[in-house]
Amino acid sequence: MGCTLPACGGQAIPDTLAARQTSVEGARMTILRIVNRKMDREMYEALRKALDIDHHHPLGLIMHGVSEVDGTMQVAQIWESSWYAALFDENLAPMLEAVGAPTEADIRVFELEHLVTP
Fold first, then answer.
1. Which of 49-76 are b and which e, b meaning 16 or more Cβ less than 10 Å from the residue's Cβ?
2. Where do the domains of the chain lie?
3. Mean pLDDT confidence for 56-68
């Protein structure tokens, strides 16, 4: 299975276990990312609509949420691995530029040791 969604640049991206393995011993490490691009709500909404993330979920994304803190939108994401997050970031760059959003971001990454999903 591969990704051909707008967030993947419309290109077929292979979904192989070997490509997704990121930790020492070969097990996938689920990650939590907190992303701050210093976007205001208007810019975030423009990007959200361009991505259509509500309907087209990027490959490997488990959860996406956002909160406004001091006028800046903070994004929390949980990814199956850092490989998927990096793939998303690569394909996100043209969309960021298209809506005038900063391409640089403060990104904090945490490897999750335990994740419960319903």
1. ebbebeeebbbbbbebeeeeeeeebbbe
2. 41-112
3. 96
For 48-57, the pLDDT digits (tens) are: 999 999 999 9
Question: Three-state DSSP class for 89?
Answer: helix
* Cβ neighbours of residue 30 closer than 8 Å, sequence gap 6 or more: 62, 78, 79, 80, 81, 111, 112, 115
* Cα–Cα nearest to 82, from 24, 32, 117: 32
Contact 51, 7 (CB under 8 A): yes
Strand 72-79's sheet: what is its strand order?
Answer: 61-69, 72-79, 31-36, 106-111
Q: Would you put residue 47 in left (φ > 0), alpha (ψ -120 to 50) or beta?
A: alpha
Q: Do the strands 13-14 and 106-111 form a parallel or antiparallel pair, or are they unpaired?
A: unpaired
Predicted structure pTM score: 0.75
Helix (H) or strand (E) holding 66: strand 61-69
